[in-house]
Amino acid sequence: MRAVAVERTESTTVRIMELTPQDITRWDAFVDACPGATFFHRAGWKEIIERAFGHSTYFLMAENGDSIEGVLPLARLRSRLFGDALISLPFAVYGGIAASTEQAADALDKAAQVLAERLGVGHLEYRHCKPMHPDWPTKDLYVTFRGRIAPDSQANMAAIPRKQRAMVRKGMRAGLQSRFDDDNERFFQAYSYSVHQLGTPVFARRYFDLLRETFGRSCDVLTVSHGERLVASVLSFYFRDEVLPFYGGGTALAREFAGNDFMYWQLMESARERGYRFFDFGRSKRGAGSYHFKKHWGFEPQPLHYECRLIRATALPDNSPMNPKYRLFIALWRRLPLPVVNALGPYIVRNLG
């Protein structure tokens, strides 16, 4: 284990260390107990980001004596096309510093900025739920949606606005069925078809296999079908008392049968039966189709504070698919055959964390 930095006061000494395999159990125990930590602070993301995308990671933890008082998972995304950034955490909704003491949070913050300077990245980015550096430039692009799951099924159904509730019942009347899959085969079919229709690059199948391999029972796949025909599928994470449907997609049948509405209702019901109390619908870009879909479900958008400190860059890169300069690329991407985009997509999306 290598000490990155030491922060001293009159009464305590906080050491900033890099995560090693021997620390994983302690790291995850801290994350489970820390109110400010999320599923995306779990140690398993280090191996996933390294193996699935080949990026360098810097998972920092603040120690005081034998106790962990804070964690900060970081990964560097370096690309000629999309810039060079040190992010907590790419491919995640949340991240940034999770700490139980102010001293640990300050020490991690200082260590990250020193690391960003040493690496010479374009910018350092924290994905916090609450502001930490209001004076830093921000990416005001995403919001998140999160709501309670009532212990009563009828109460949850009644909480869905009338028009969207009708869509859930449309799927029920159509005879849709849901099942948790043991592998990612049907999920990847639905997901890759869906993102192709949106004109965005697809993640590699290997990435999703690594998620399930690494997180075990904290990650599963619910798939909806109509008879033998695939309709929709969603890969979800479970953390403490919440379920996070994170990657999902539907085939052409999803619109015909209201498959996505039925799918999320089935997921909510399954989570309720297992005692989960919160449904985290994840982030969406302001004004995007998924943004309006989640609002129609009765979820209110909550701001995400993606704060950035410029290091070598003079301005933040805009790699959003909503950027007008990508309009032609998206139009061309939609026209490519699905096997082609499934082969090429992972090489592009690995740098779009």
UniProtKB/TrEMBL annotation:
<dbReference type="InterPro" id="IPR017469">
    <property type="entry name" value="PEP-CTERM_FemAB-rel"/>
</dbReference>
<dbReference type="InterPro" id="IPR038740">
    <property type="entry name" value="BioF2-like_GNAT_dom"/>
</dbReference>
<dbReference type="InterPro" id="IPR016181">
    <property type="entry name" value="Acyl_CoA_acyltransferase"/>
</dbReference>
<dbReference type="InterPro" id="IPR050644">
    <property type="entry name" value="PG_Glycine_Bridge_Synth"/>
</dbReference>
<dbReference type="Pfam" id="PF13480">
    <property type="entry name" value="Acetyltransf_6"/>
</dbReference>
<feature type="domain" description="BioF2-like acetyltransferase">
    <location>
        <begin position="162"/>
        <end position="295"/>
    </location>
</feature>
<protein>
    <recommendedName>
        <fullName>BioF2-like acetyltransferase domain-containing protein</fullName>
    </recommendedName>
</protein>
